[in-house]
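quick q for whoever's on today - can somebody do inverse folding on this one?? i tried earlier but teh output was garbage lol. tokens:
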């Protein structure tokens, strides 16, 4: 349930239109990112998702995910998404290597796509989402991800 609500918020943030995250590619992106953040913040039951939740426990869930991507060798890309300059691209293969297999499988299952499709969609939409969630070039501290998204969408 939380992933679906988060997906709607993310879809709106990514330009899903006034009607929410229905229809269009951005709605799918919001749903996949919602499932990713849901799995990553403890909504998942796998060890990988729980490790992600623990990594982000001190700050925001977004921080935990960015930390995991940093440690997977995507430091330059992550910093470009957070910073105020152009976003460096990331590939679906890089996303697959960075995320725990269990987490990616859960996201794919919740979204009704294959793990490769989920990784490709995350690679396309995550840079834009992180960019919009960090307009001042810094990760937001504290609060739920839904609250952070609402603040940036206002």
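ok took a stab at it. sequence:
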């Amino acid at each position: 349930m939380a992933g679906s609500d988060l997906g709607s918020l993310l879809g709106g943030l990514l330009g899903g239109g006034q009607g929410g995250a229905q229809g269009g590619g951005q709605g799918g992106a919001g749903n996949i990112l919602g499932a990713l953040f849901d799995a990553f913040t403890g909504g998942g039951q796998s060890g990988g998702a729980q490790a992600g939740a623990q990594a982000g426990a001190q700050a925001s869930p977004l921080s935990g995910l960015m930390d995991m991507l940093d440690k997977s060798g995507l430091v330059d890309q992550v910093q470009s998404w957070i910073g105020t300059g152009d976003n460096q691209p990331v590939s679906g293969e890089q996303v697959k290597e960075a995320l725990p297999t269990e987490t990616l499988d859960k996201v794919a299952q919740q979204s009704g796509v294959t793990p490769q499709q989920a990784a490709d969609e995350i690679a396309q939409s995550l840079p834009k989402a992180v960019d919009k969630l960090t307009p001042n070039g810094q990760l937001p501290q504290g609060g739920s991800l839904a609250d952070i998204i609402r603040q940036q969408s206002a």
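fwiw The longest helix spans residues 61-82. also The radius of gyration is 14 Å. so keep that in mind when u check it
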